[in-house]
């Protein structure tokens, strides 16, 4: 009874001590065995490990590739155009002993703070170096710049026991205070290009209009010249016809021209023309007195004898219409020879 009472607690104590001296290392981790803060052993391979119970402490660290997003920083390339850069890095713990010695009990949090300082310094140094402009950062040479940042950061991060696997620039933008000025400059550039295009379009339109106006003038001039030629030929043909007609019967041609003159001169009702009856204009009206051929509308109807001129009638310079007028009525439409009468407001013509 007494043996069982002592053996059972002793077995439990032995079991607890045995279990506390064993630890398991995962394939994704690395382990350090510490005794009073001092490194006693390093366990990098997965499996079981042993330590002194109650004296040793096991600290594990992630052996996978970790990610770190850096804070946004401003850099100034060689062309003095400030840029806002946002980067991230991939790293892993390469040497757990050096890592523990560098960061102490702070672990990953302290290591990432120090690694971020290294990355920011290297980003500013590489992007602010000579011959590196904002255009270079935004061009295909960006990959070369990121490799330089990674290599320089890796060299410094080795002191922390870290291996920087990769560094990438996520975003490269202008500062907010420079965006408005940049947009205004871009807008002014586009407006200038638009104005140039409009000016070139107006110039081309002016050339087209000038060419069209020239074509119109040349066409009208050519048409007018041809019209004048045709008109001249027509006038020549008309004059030839008139001359031929005049040569065929000069007396009838003179009569026809007199009829046209009567028609044109006696049109309108608001004017009067006063001239002597002996004027050549009334040659065919005075055919009986002058012996000329009478007008067609004064011909004697067929079958009636032509009136004989009275030889005993007194000779007078007045027209027959004036001689036949009653003595009691004043001749208001006729006037003595050589004394033309002009109505008020009517034009006069003296022959």
UniProtKB/TrEMBL annotation:
InterPro entries for this protein: Band_7, Band_7/SPFH_dom_sf, HflC, TonB_box_CS
A GO CC annotation given for this chain: membrane
Low complexity bias spans: 308-333
Domain Band: residue ranges: 20-186
Sequence intervals crossing the membrane: 6-25
Gene Ontology terms: biological process: proteolysis
Subcellular location field: Membrane
Keyword Signal: no
UniProt KW keywords: Hydrolase, Membrane, Protease, Transmembrane, Transmembrane helix
Chain segments carrying region Disordered: 288-351
Membrane topology, record value: Single-pass membrane protein
Any one GO molecular function term: peptidase activity
Pfam families: Band_7
Recorded family membership: Belongs to the band 7/mec-2 family. HflC subfamily.
Purpose: HflC and HflK could regulate a protease.
Protein's name in the database: Protein HflC
UniProt organism field: Sagittula salina
